[in-house]
């Protein structure tokens, strides 16, 4: 969405009563007049800071003027508004639309919470059951014929050491114990 469309969308919100006071509008106009590249000329800045005209009229004219000038000018207005009235900038209707997520998009934070809602005790219980089953399977397996001492030393190896490394270590321990 372009800044001009956003400004058109936010225009009523900005010009409604007591949203922006006169000092903030003057600061915004001065910033748009002094910033590089210069958004408002000196004559335009004086016109929009004229205390004889009502604040509502000056602000409406300023916003219409910026929309006619183009997207870059509207973007600089939003930057000046953010610097001089950050709370108002955050409350803009166009900002709220930008902040609302797409309803079809998956909220990863919420999804992560939903997957992990059981807590650490559940994880430790599952891990303990898996480790116990691996240990029982390893100790009761008839393929590995190793002596008792080697079996006791490498009893927890299925958890830590890979199958090939474990087999090599067990063969080495068997050869040492035979000699």
UniProtKB/TrEMBL annotation:
GO process terms (BP): regulation of apoptotic process
Presence of keyword Membrane: yes
Disulfide bond recorded as keyword: yes
Residues spanning the membrane: 120-138
Location of the protein in the cell: Endoplasmic reticulum membrane; Mitochondrion membrane
Membrane topology: Single-pass membrane protein
GO CC list: endoplasmic reticulum membrane; mitochondrial membrane
InterPro entries hit by this protein: CARD, CARD19, CARD_BinCARD, DEATH-like_dom_sf
Keyword annotations: Disulfide bond, Endoplasmic reticulum, Membrane, Mitochondrion, Transmembrane, Transmembrane helix
Domain CARD: 38-96
SUPFAM superfamilies in the record: DEATH domain
Primary localisation category: endoplasmic reticulum
Quaternary state and interactors: Associates with BCL10 by CARD-CARD interaction.
Protein's recorded name: Caspase recruitment domain-containing protein 19
Organism: Notiomystis cincta
């Amino acid at each position: 969405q372009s800044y001009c469309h956003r400004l058109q969308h936010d225009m009523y919100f900005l010009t409604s009563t007591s949203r922006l006071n006169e000092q903030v509008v003057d600061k915004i106009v001065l910033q748009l007049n002094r910033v590089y590249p210069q958004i408002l000329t000196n004559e335009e800045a004086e016109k929009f800071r004229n205390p004889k005209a009502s604040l509502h009229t000056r602000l409406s004219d300023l916003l219409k003027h910026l929309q006619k000038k183009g997207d870059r000018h509207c973007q600089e207005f939003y930057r000046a508004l953010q610097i001089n009235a950050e709370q108002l900038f955050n409350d803009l209707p166009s900002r709220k639309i930008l902040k609302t997520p797409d309803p079809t998009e998956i909220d990863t934070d919420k999804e992560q919470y939903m997957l992990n809602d059981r807590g650490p005790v559940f994880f430790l219980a599952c891990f303990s059951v898996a480790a116990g089953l691996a240990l029982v399977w390893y100790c009761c397996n008839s393929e590995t014929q190793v002596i008792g001492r080697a079996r006791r030393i490498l009893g927890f190896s299925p958890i830590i050491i890979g199958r090939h490394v474990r087999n090599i270590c067990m063969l080495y321990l068997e050869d040492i114990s035979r000699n």
